[in-house]
Specification:
Strand content: 25-35%
Strand order of the largest sheet: 8-14-13-10-9
Number of domains: 3
CATH class of the largest domain: Mainly Beta
Shape: globular
CATH architecture of the largest domain: 6 Propeller
């Protein structure tokens, strides 16, 4: 209440300016809380509608400008979903359903979990009916209050040993209102073969399935990738193999993504055709008005595909459609600096010139030169390996051996000088044995310090895991917990795909450091003005931090799987599965 001109006036919530009210409402959950505000009054209903539009508009703009914020949600202390990868996920209203998947030991699940996006909590529905088999790499889509689960594979138990893994062609329906599973038996004998790693989407009352890893009884090859298109009528549950033009046509693949643009166009991105066959291409499946006619494919040209930094990995990384953008989460593909490439080329050129001049000598001196060089190099390599293990800083003896090797590389020294250089390198190597005891004590001290740091990190992890899951809570990372190769967000403009067969990368070249560690085979679902990422398989970050630093860190090591981290490659770091949720929202602007 306020006094104006000595008169008492009453101020209500309806007197709040529209802009201020929309800003206040934007802090509510875009699911249940914001929807409930529509029931307050007509003014609030109008404000809620405008707030939802503004949230979507700001989120799309933040994806292009990389003005995003990561929310890392850890599991709650109560019952929660376990870590998994190659699972299935689907958004239904204000909930995300997750089914199946497998562990690091290829143990598959058949459990179904529901994540409430409003309260940010996991709930396991108490289901009944005919449960599906434990499986991974299955497709799950939503249609008329039903979750449609199809295909997938499972790893058999090791007893008996002769059993092999299995691919399914079963169709299971889950009623989201009654929480009941049911097995659907196709009414026609002509049905889709067993399949896994495929993609599926809903158009009208049809489910369209493309690609995947197939298994047929009469085929001599047990498993093979496919590029067939199958259609399931969701009213009659009759399968039909759709005829498609023979050329152009994408290669057989699995592990790809499928996005519906409209009722007549489906976009296929990435995938794999087998070992060492990773695809980054994009295809458009065109559907005529009369579905009985032959469908056809159109290849899509990607602009700025080789930009700096280059485009993302779209194989085994799911995509998500937001308006006219196709969002991909992938680690940054780092390019080697140009100067470094030039330096390496110059070194190779100089080495070739030196080797050609050395070959011009006599045969006897060449043999003596090679023997002396091999003995000196062996002694130097043994010493360098020992120094890397003990953490010793190169001393004068090391530089002597290096000098002798560089002198041998010139190819101009005499036989006596070569023998003297080899003897000097051998002598310097023998001197290392006398200094091993004080250096071993120093190495032992470093190991104890490393154990202390590891114990401190374990205590910090326990505190993080035991913290309860709150609404829009984030796990605050310290400098030691920052990801070494965080996931980045990439946006592909698909507004001209249908008309001009062109797609364009429109993301900014901004390296974000607060994303999760590099992960694959996760799920990505589009919520209301947010993206929800769950699960996946990744390298153990704790083991990665314990890797010893390389002796020379000046080189530009490539990021991602297959690069070098510390003293060893990433292949030496064990894989782990994740049960963390990562949510991407737009950064808020304070008014």
């Amino acid at each position: 209440m306020d006094y104006i001109d000595n008169q008492l006036t009453v101020t209500t919530v309806d007197d709040i300016p529209q802009v201020v009210l929309e800003y206040i409402l934007s802090y509510l959950s875009p699911y249940r809380q914001l929807i409930d505000c529509k029931l307050v009054s007509k003014t609030w209903r109008s404000a809620v509608i405008d707030t939802i539009r503004k949230l979507k508009r700001d989120f799309i703009a933040s994806l292009v400008t990389q003005s995003i914020r990561w929310w890392h949600l850890s599991p709650s202390s109560g019952p929660s979903i376990s870590g998994r990868y190659s699972h299935s996920a689907c958004l239904v209203g204000s909930s995300m359903y997750v089914f199946g998947g497998c562990t690091i030991a290829n143990t598959t699940f058949n459990d179904l979990w529901r994540f409430d996006l409003s309260s940010r909590t996991w709930i396991r529905p108490i289901a009944t009916g005919t449960f599906p088999s434990p499986k991974a790499c299955a497709s799950m889509a939503y249609h008329n209050n039903y979750l449609i689960l199809f295909g997938g594979w499972t790893h058999s138990s090791p007893y008996p040993i002769h059993q092999e893994w299995r691919i399914f062609n079963q169709i299971h329906l889950f009623d989201t209102t009654t929480y009941r599973w049911s097995l659907v038996v196709p009414t026609d004998s002509h049905y889709c073969p067993a399949i896994a790693g495929h993609s599926a989407s809903i158009i009208g009352h049809y489910m369209i399935v493309f690609g995947g890893l197939h298994s047929e009884a009469n085929n001599p090859i047990p498993f093979f990738s496919s590029n067939d298109v199958w259609i399931l009528n969701l009213e009659t549950f009759v399968w039909n193999k759709q005829p498609v033009t023979a050329s152009p046509k994408p290669l057989p693949r699995y592990g790809h993504s499928q996005v519906v643009l409209d009722d007549q166009h489906i976009l296929i991105t990435g995938g794999s055709g087998g070992p060492n066959m990773l695809f980054n291409d994009i295809w458009l499946l065109c559907i005529p008005d009369d579905w009985s006619q032959q469908w056809y494919w159109r290849p899509i040209e990607v602009i700025r595909k080789d930009s700096n930094p280059p485009g993302p990995q779209i194989n085994f990384h799911p995509t998500c459609k937001i308006a006219n953008l196709l969002v991909v989460l992938s680690p940054a593909q780092r390019l080697r600096p140009t100067n470094q490439c030039k330096d390496q080329n110059n070194k190779l050129r100089n080495n070739n010139n030196k080797s050609s001049s050395a070959e011009s000598g006599s045969s006897s001196s060449s043999r003596q030169y090679s023997a002396a060089k091999e003995s000196a190099a062996a002694a130097a390599n043994d010493r360098l390996d020992w120094q890397q293990l003990s953490g010793q800083v190169p001393t004068a003896s090391t530089s002597t051996a290096s000098t002798s090797i560089s002198a041998l590389d010139t190819g101009t020294i005499s036989t006596a000088a070569a023998a003297a250089a080899a003897a000097s390198a051998a002598a310097s190597g023998s001197g290392l044995q006398q200094q091993s005891r004080p250096l071993s004590r120093r190495n032992r001290q470093r190991q104890l310090e490393g154990l202390d740091r590891m114990e401190l990190r374990i205590q910090q992890m326990k505190k993080t895991i035991s913290s309860p899951l709150v609404v829009r809570n984030t796990t605050i990372r310290s400098s030691e917990q920052l990801a070494q190769n965080p996931m980045q967000l990439f946006c592909l403009d698909i507004s001209q795909v249908i008309g001009k067969n062109i797609a364009k990368w429109v993301h900014k070249n901004i390296f974000v450091t607060d994303g999760p560690e590099e992960v694959m085979l996760y799920t990505l679902v589009a919520g209301r003005a947010e993206l929800i990422m769950f699960g996946g398989i990744q390298k153990d970050r704790n083991c990665r931090q314990n890797q010893a630093p390389p002796p020379d860190s000046s080189g530009g090591g490539g990021g991602g799987i297959g690069g070098n981290v510390g003293g060893g490659g990433l292949n030496d770091i064990p894989d782990i599965v994740s049960n963390q949720l990562h949510i991407i929202t737009a950064k808020r602007i304070v008014i």
